[in-house]
Amino acid sequence: MTALTKYARLESGGIWRPGGEAQRRDVVVSFGDATLVISDTAGRPLTHWSLPAVDRTNPGTRPAIYSPDIDGGDETLEIEDDTMIEAVETVRRSLARSRPRPGRLRWVGLGLSALAVIALAVFWLPGAITRQTLNVVPLSKRSEIGATLLGHVQALTGPVCRTPQGRQALSRLQTRVLGTGFAGQIVILPSGLAGPIYLPGGIIALNRSAVEDPEDPAVTAGHVVAAAATVRVQDPLEPLLRQAGLRATLRLLTTGDLPPGTLNDYAEVVVAARPPAVPDEEMVPTFGNALVPTTPYAYAVDLTGETVLGLIEADPMAGREVPQILSDGDWVALQGICGQ
Question: The pTM is what?
Answer without folding.
Answer: 0.69
